[in-house]
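so my prof wants the structure for this chain in the tokens format not the other one, which i didnt know existed until like an hour ago. anyway here's the sequence
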Amino acid sequence: MSGPILDLETAVREMGALPMPAGPEPRTRTMLDHARAALNARMTKDDLRLVLENTIAFAATLETDREANDREYEAATARIAALESERHTTNEALSAAAEQLRRQRDRIAELEKLVEQATEFRVWEPAYGLYVRRAPGTTGFAVMEARRTDKGRRVWTTSGWQYATILSDSEMFCWPDAQTAVTEARRIMPGGAA
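here's what i got, hopefully its the right format
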């Protein structure tokens, strides 16, 4: 070597080195790469036997891996089928529940409409009862005893018990809606009934 090396060809010739190609790192040689190289090489029987044993061991590993993968695939397929079945069952249950909820909502709306149209409700205990009545032509309700006395029927008002004969319609039908009037009637029942 007489002076500094300035080009690639001189470096290769002087040092006997081959240039490394630019790009990704070289990959590790696999068992298959070794087997292919053995095909073109001159080998002794012992070397050939060693290559064959390594190839058989590698093939056995591949077979074991394939069997494990097959088992995992079958397990995953079974799990997917179970999840799809569960989803189907859940969807059916949700559909049935949604349908039941729709029917219940429709029934509630129907009953609410009926309550709006009702003119009388009865709250009873053994030997005692109350009527909850709607005022004719208005939305107010009255709470009155079912039995009459010689003074007339008693009415529960916001001021307590009074006889209907001395009350105006607005005093008698003082409860704004059926729910409020029925709640009041239940509250004042002698047995606190329900």
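also thought this was worth mentioning. The chain has a mean pLDDT of 81.
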